[in-house]
Amino acid sequence: WLRFIKGVVDSEDIPLNISREHLQDSSVIRRLANVLTGRIIKFIKQKSTKDPENFEKFYDEYSMFLKEGVCVDNTFKQEIAELLRFERSEGDGTLIGLSEYVE
Description:
Blueprint: H1 20-25, H2 27-50, H3 52-72, H4 77-81, E1 85-87, E2 95-97, H5 98-102
Antiparallel strand pairs: 1-2
Helix pairs in contact: 2-3
């Protein structure tokens, strides 16, 4: 679900010559993926609180990926759900987070 993120990870724990099969079965890669996912979610949360206008633009473009993440990533389901936005009941078209919606 994070396929919209592009980047390079440099780690001494990953050998340079590694087969695709070994890469998929590696516990180091799984652990690294969990750490990176957590950091990306934390970064997006910080942006949503510090700069709501830019987050709204981001959400318009990438909300489908966040919704997919809630469905497929059981480890970070709660954290991703906090990033989702819903339309207000008043129908004015503004989007708010679930915690604000419940209040």
